[in-house]
């Protein structure tokens, strides 16, 4: 089964497809949130901050390629297209707009699950571990230089603050559980120390968020962990 805590948003105007895919993927251990319109789908993406998107580009109220472009303005998570269009030009247009994979209807569930697993494995094995630049809001993190800047000025972080924001940046868009963060930063003996995380996340929000009381990027997933969103 696919690892738990993976969140998927499914956008498809066909009720039967949404039910079939949602039910099947839930049996594989995924949390699936479905939407029948582009507006509802964009709302679910903003609310859920999913690990993966499945999008039908045959929606009645918007061109699917335009929807992919709209999604890519704020999200870089893996996106798999479902479509009855089997022309090469349609596939090329979707991939050029930002889709990661393209599956033609009718499709077999085992193939869809295999493609999802492949995308998640690729994400897990290469979670922004390059020594590059990560940007969100007015913040820039240079992972190679171990430097954080906001609006052009250097932000002074403690060693622990930097390790925490760098870890979130390397896994941008994905939920990191309390246990994962505590083990990575303080070691396995501190897995019950969630108060450590609350303190340091609070420090980071004060230094990096526009409004620390209403964070836009360093988000809490109640009872689960933290997620960095809005990364460019």
Automatic annotation (TrEMBL):
One of its GO terms (cellular component) is protein-DNA complex. Residues 7-120 form the Response regulatory domain. PANTHER family: KDP OPERON TRANSCRIPTIONAL REGULATORY PROTEIN KDPE (PTHR48111:SF50), REGULATOR OF RPOS (PTHR48111). GO terms for biological process: regulation of DNA-templated transcription. Residues 131-230 form the OmpR/PhoB-type domain. It holds the Pfam family Response_reg. Transmembrane segments: none annotated. Keywords: DNA-binding, Phosphoprotein. The lineage of its organism: Bacteria, Pseudomonadati, Pseudomonadota, Betaproteobacteria, Burkholderiales. One of its GO terms (molecular function) is transcription cis-regulatory region binding. InterPro entries: CheY-like_superfamily, OmpR/PhoB-type_DNA-bd, Sig_transdc_resp-reg_C-effctor, Sig_transdc_resp-reg_receiver, WalR-like, WH-like_DNA-bd_sf. Residues 131-230 bind DNA. It comes from Burkholderia mayonis. The modification 4-aspartylphosphate is found at residue 56. This is Two-component system response regulator.
